[in-house]
Write a structure and sequence with these properties.
By secondary structure, the protein is an all-alpha fold. It has one domain: MFS general substrate transporter like domains (Growth Hormone, Chain: A). The protein is 78% helix and 0% strand. α7 packs across α13 and α9 runs antiparallel to α10. It is globular and about 55 Å long. The chain starts with 6 loop residues before the first helix and ends in a 12-residue tail after the last helix.
Amino acid sequence: MAFPRNSRISRLFALRWSGQLSDGIFQSGLASFILFSPERQSDALAAATAFAIVLLPYSVVGPFVGTILDRFSRQRILFYCNLTRALIATVIALLIWQGATGFGMISLVLAAFGVNRLILAGLSASLPLLVAKDEQVRERLVAINATAVTGGTVFVVLGGGVGIGIRNLMADVSANHADSLVILVAGAIFFLTALLALLFRREELGPEHHEMKKASFFAGIDEMRDGFKRLQACRDAMLGIIATGVHRSGLTALTLMALILQRNSFNSSSEPSAGLAGFALAAVVAGVGIAVGALIAPFGVARFGRHRWIRWMLISSAIAPLFLALEQSEPILLLTGFLTGACGQGVKVTNDALVQSQIVDQYRGRVFAVYDVMVNSAIVSGALVAALLLPKDGAGGVLPLVVSISYLVVAVALLRPKYFHSTATR
């Protein structure tokens, strides 16, 4: 996965990765405060509720993301949204310092993740414009998108490790104050990320001038419907999005299982810091798997084609959860995280490139808004299923077995060549 020589793409990478590094720091501070505080007990329902709160704004903002991205300067959106995140993180840090957990705190967290949804969708919609038109766009998009998305995921994981490291350096500081300082660091990096957006010209990231229309706040639902119709006309992109959503749903369920196992089973519930460290290790191993999955995706696509690669990666994803269903131990959990992360990233980056290459820029923002809402709804569903199936200590084989079966059913039934193939774009 070679780093692109195009300086504009390199700048977009720097913008994306610095923001996701701060995302990881921000999320580690929140997780420590909400799920791993000594005074709070955590079970599957509490963890699923936290996931739902984080993902709710992604779906609520979704209908309006396409309208905004297709009609306003994406460079300005990235600049002001990162400034907004910096301000929100600062206020959240002050509330955590005081131990606040009320409605105001929840509202700010929702706002922070809602703004982040707009930023990530804007980055995805901007990327194809920075690929030179005289290059083999389809092939380069797989490699470049794999680098962008996977690098971002790795930086989120790295940011989580940085946040945990910062917190451990403040062992003598109260838990709330330590978490507050972690989030304050994230806010500072959000601000630096906003400055990186100024490295682009106002119209450089799109949308193109002749495609910009007068925006209407209430046009969001119509834009979503328009994006959905575009996907219906491109069947393989629609099926790829469904496959991505199902995989992320299962991955979320397994993540919650890992969290509860580390919090209540592999470590004493009276020592949440040990559980946090164990969960961080699992996240790092999964992050390594994600990087490996992105590294091999361009080669797999070149050898087998996008459609077969997505099918095989989804089938391969079903293997590791079977081992976890038979035995809940830390080595098996780490193996599951690595393999599922690697195969899942192969599905994600390949499908992102498929959607980017088949949807014209005029509608790309709207289609990615539909994409985001579908995937995030699937993620919330995965969290809710985990809450229903997981026992209090997280141990049990039912959930990983359900995840494995869901992957196989989608890959074998929905993605069979009869429905999912390279000419299914009419």
